[in-house]
């Protein structure tokens, strides 16, 4: 039995569960955009993706990291303390800006 299925059974989530297992550069790009704008809808427009796609990517990022990174409120989102630390980490890593040729 696969680890995702074991996880799903252990947590009563049913047979089919999408448990993110890695962080993508796209998720980091979306996270940085949302941190800059404070709004998922505005960031989705800037990144030329649907709001639902961005929301799913951010939720998967939070699931992978294991803590909430964003606090949702009526006018948008703000970073949690963990979100602030994660933002500093990805900005310091600067991985998401490097060209593939380097």
What does this structure look like?
A two-stranded antiparallel sheet has the order 1-2. Helix 2 (about 25-35) crosses helix 3, helix 2 (about 25-35) packs across helix 4 (about 50-65) and helix 3 packs across helix 4 (about 50-65). The protein is globular and about 25 Å long. The chain has a single domain, classed as Orthogonal Bundle (Arc Repressor Mutant, subunit A). It starts with a helix and ends in a 9-residue tail after the last helix. The protein has helices spanning about 5-10, 25-35, 40-45, 50-65, 80-95; strands at about 70-75, 75-80. It is built from five helices and two strands. The protein has about 100 residues and is mainly alpha-helical.
Give a concise summary.
The protein is mainly alpha-helical. The chain has helices at about 5-10, 25-35, 40-45, 50-65, 80-95, and strands at about 70-75, 75-80.
List the helices and strands and how they pair.
Layout: H1 3-10, H2 25-37, H3 40-46, H4 51-65, E1 70-73, E2 76-79, H5 81-93
Antiparallel strand pairs: 1-2
Keywords:
5 helices; 2 strands; single chain; two-stranded antiparallel ribbon; 55% helix; Arc Repressor Mutant, subunit A; 102 residues; mainly alpha
């Amino acid at each position: 039995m696969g680890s995702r299925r074991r996880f799903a059974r252990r947590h009563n989530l049913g047979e089919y569960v999408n448990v993110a297992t890695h962080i993508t550069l796209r998720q980091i790009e979306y996270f940085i955009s949302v941190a800059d704008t404070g709004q998922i809808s505005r960031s989705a427009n800037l990144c030329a993706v649907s709001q639902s796609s961005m929301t799913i990517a951010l939720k998967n990022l939070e699931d992978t990291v294991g803590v909430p990174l964003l606090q949702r409120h009526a006018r948008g989102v703000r970073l949690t303390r963990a979100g602030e630390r994660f933002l500093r980490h990805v900005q310091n890593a600067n991985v998401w800006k490097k060209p593939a040729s380097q």
